[in-house]
Amino acid sequence: MASCNNSNLTAYNPSSANPWDISKIKFIYRRLGFGISLEKAKTKLGFTPSELIDQIIDNAKNLPLTTAPEWGYWNNSQINQSGKNQSYYKNIWQRQAFSNFLNDGFRERITLFWSNHFVTEYYDYNRAPYLFQYHIKLQKHSLGNFKEFVSEIGLEPAMLLYLNGYSNRKQAPNENYARELYELFTLGEGNGYQSNDITETARALTGYNKYSDGNGSSIIFNSNTFDNGDKTIFGKTGNWGYQDVIDILFNEKKDLIAKFICQKLYKYFISPKVENEIVNQLAATFVSNDFNLIPVYKLLFKSEHFFDTNSSNVLIKSPIDTFVFLQNDFEFDFPETFQSNYLNYIKNKCVEMGQEIFKPVDVAGWQENHDWISTGTLPMRWEFLEYIIRRHWVKNKEQFRSFIIELVGNDEKNPSTIVSKMKDYMFCKFDMKPEEMLDAVNVFKGDTPENYYEDGTWTLSFESVPNQVFNLMLFFINLPEYQLK
User: How many Cα atoms sit within 13 Å of 20 on the Cβ side?
Assistant: First the structure.
């Protein structure tokens, strides 16, 4: 089914009818990052849309990989000697991932995307150093070359254990990784390959089942377990090995690969309703750039199609989005006791809502969008977000006043104007129902006498203002549209 977005991939050029403003900037950071504060968003207005997209992507490309922890390359013996278990270090790295979400924008957004493409499930391999190494590999290649990405991710210990590459030997071939390489990672289910291609590919992928330095160390090639007979893959016959598989795949199936990957990018960043002509143009760019990802990202994210409001409010926030957006959009302070536990809190609450980082539901990954929302998880979102906002209130209620003054100006006295601007800040562009807007205005007015608003007595200096803003935020986070991005 096609969407209502009929715009093309021509670069977005602001006009009086389609201006470049804070709402556009916030849209960019909802889709390409994890939110942005008002203060930071204002600093982006001096860039053109294309300049800002270049800055976001280039900064992500140049961002150093997350620093390796002391235990990042330990084997199992070293983990045991440390006096801690694998779970202890795994929890450290999950918290690190949430710290990255809060601070590293597009690099971590695109890393999260690829973690749900090249899926591994932590508890299937249960080794924290492998988790770290896998995560770093995602960071390294998420803005690089897709062919190199496919080649290297398949040799990660986490992947070799998760999809049984470690068990794949010439005397007992295991087809699991070969199947997922085609079905999930490059071509799509039943698209351009036959069962015999999987069987022969599995033979070519044998041999990666030797620890370099004890259990839990890197996994290296073992020629004794490699099947060195001829294999026929996509009609090509030879004594193929691991890299031969990748080369043959990208030589013979380049157009299918490009379309499959670009369609997946489109669904994640634009809309679940795919515009095939846009995907085909992206795929052509992908192939012509030898499978380098950045040209595809820039073509899509600079386009009229990306900025078309018909593709706003069509994606549902993931649990990770829900928490990190709130923090990055407002940048309110927490009490010290909660601040020290905040990463643990949001990590654990995301688990309760169905998104444990580095452990998607299965090899096909989280299906996202409507799968994030149920009669059970929606009330959780309301409850957990309200808890966080209340922690901000406990820390310093005046930060609510400071925010609204920055948003609307110190002299604004019209509650309807204030509520409208707050709505525009917290939501993607949508037309709120008149009755909901009236409810929001009444929530904001609170117990302050009506005549105070009518005669201009009420101002943003009133003692009640922090509580008014607090109550308005609680009202807004409970509206269905707040779950969209």
Answer: 19
Find residue 237's DSSP bridge partners: 232
Token pair listed for 469 = 């803003």
Residue 4's pLDDT is what? 79
Two structure tokens written together for 123: 């508890």
What gap in Å lies between CA 346 and CA 361, rounded to an integer? Answer: 18
Classify strands 236-238 and 231-233 as parallel, antiparallel or unpaired: antiparallel
Classified as helix, coil or strand, 241 is coil
DSSP 8-state code for residue 66: P
Three-class DSSP category at 145: strand
If you ran DSSP here, which 8-state letter would residue 352 be given? Answer: H
- Token pair 């795919």 is found at 274
Q: What is the DSSP-derived secondary structure letter of residue 310?
A: G
Task: Count CA atoms within 13 Å of residue 38 on its CB side.
Answer: 15
Distance CA 262, CA 276 (A): 10
- Go through the chain and tell me how many residues it has: 485
pTM: 0.97
Distance (Å, whole) CA 24 – CA 429: 9
Q: Tokens at residue 330, please?
A: 């407002």
Q: Which residues of the chain have pLDDT under 70?
A: 1-3
pLDDT value of position 18: 87
Contact in structure between 216 and 74 (CB atoms under 8 Å): yes
Collapse the DSSP code of 441 into the 3-class scheme (helix H, G, I; strand E, B; otherwise coil) and give the result.
helix
Cα dihedral angle (50, 52, 55, 58), rounded to 10 degrees? -50
Helices (H), 34-85: 38-43, 49-62, 76-81
Q: What angle do CA 135, 141, 146 make, to 5 degrees?
A: 130
Phi, psi of 219 (to 5 degrees): -105, 125
What's the pLDDT at 2? 53
For residue 372, what are the CA distances in angstroms to 111, 332, 366, 484?
19, 26, 9, 11
Q: Kindly report the number of other CB atoms within 10 A of residue 72's CB atom.
A: 18
Buried b (16+ CB within 10 A) or exposed e, 386-412: eebbebbbebeeebbbebbbebbeeee
Q: How far is CA 379 from CA 231, 375, 471, in A?
A: 54, 7, 18
Helices (H), 314-354: 319-330, 336-339, 342-352
Tokens encoding 137: 């590999």
Please give the DSSP secondary-structure letter assigned to residue 254: H
SS3 210: strand
Q: What are phi and psi of 37, to 5 degrees?
A: -75, 160
CA distance 68 to 118: 21
